[in-house]
């Protein structure tokens, strides 16, 4: 009786895990929805007359669309061109982390440009900070391996 219960628990756990095809399908669908939301915001909200909520919709939909797109591109690049034989979930984690940093960086650049605060000096400082953060996360990860 106990073996049947353990087998049922193992099957239940396996059913909850997402395989690669499900992950890619879900991410692609979510990304397309985010891009569609961004296009709807672009077409329907006048940036000169909108309140704060319009800008929140704009930046949130763009942020989600960028995360999904960049994550898929980086994951596929790693899957097809990486020399390491890491498990696929490692590539997913790496691509999500890098897409999050990149999307934050791009949103920050767009926001600074909107406020007319983006200069070559600010841009250079942001690039250096971005490279330092990415380098820091890579070195921390290698120390723990």
Say how many strands there are. 0
Count of the domains: 1
- β content, as a range? under 5%
**Which shape, going by the Cα principal axes?**
flat
Rg from alpha-carbon coordinates: 20 Å
Multimeric organization: single chain
Helix content: over 70%
Question: SSE order in H/E notation?
Answer: HHHHH
| Terminal residue distance | 41 Å
> What is the count of DSSP helices, taking H or I runs of 4+ residues?
5
- Major β-sheet, in short? none
User: Any low-confidence stretches, pLDDT <50, length ≥5?
Assistant: none
**pLDDT average, as an integer?**
86
Structural class: mainly alpha
Key phrases:
145 residues; mainly alpha; flat; 84% helix
Describe it.
By secondary structure, the chain is mainly α. It has one domain. It has 5 helices and no strands. α2 (20-44) runs antiparallel to α3, α3 packs antiparallel against α4 and α4 (88-114) runs antiparallel to α5.
Summarize this structure briefly.
This protein is mainly alpha-helical and 145 residues long. Helix content is 84%, strand content 0%. 11% of the residues are buried.
What is the element layout, followed by pairings?
Blueprint: H1 2-16, H2 20-44, H3 52-81, H4 88-114, H5 120-144
């Amino acid at each position: 009786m106990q073996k049947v219960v353990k087998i049922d628990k193992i099957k239940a756990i396996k059913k909850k895990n997402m395989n690669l095809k499900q992950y890619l399908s879900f991410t692609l669908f979510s990304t397309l929805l985010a891009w569609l939301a961004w296009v709807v915001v672009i077409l329907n909200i006048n940036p000169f007359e909108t309140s704060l909520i319009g800008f929140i919709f704009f930046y949130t939909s763009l942020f989600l669309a960028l995360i999904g797109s960049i994550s898929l591109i980086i994951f596929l690049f790693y899957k097809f061109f990486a020399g390491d034989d890491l498990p696929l979930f490692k590539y997913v984690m790496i691509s999500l982390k890098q897409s999050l940093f990149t999307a934050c960086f791009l949103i920050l650049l767009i926001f600074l440009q909107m406020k007319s605060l983006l200069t070559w000096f600010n841009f250079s400082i942001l690039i250096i900070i971005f490279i330092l953060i990415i380098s820091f996360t890579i070195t921390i990860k290698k120390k723990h391996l």
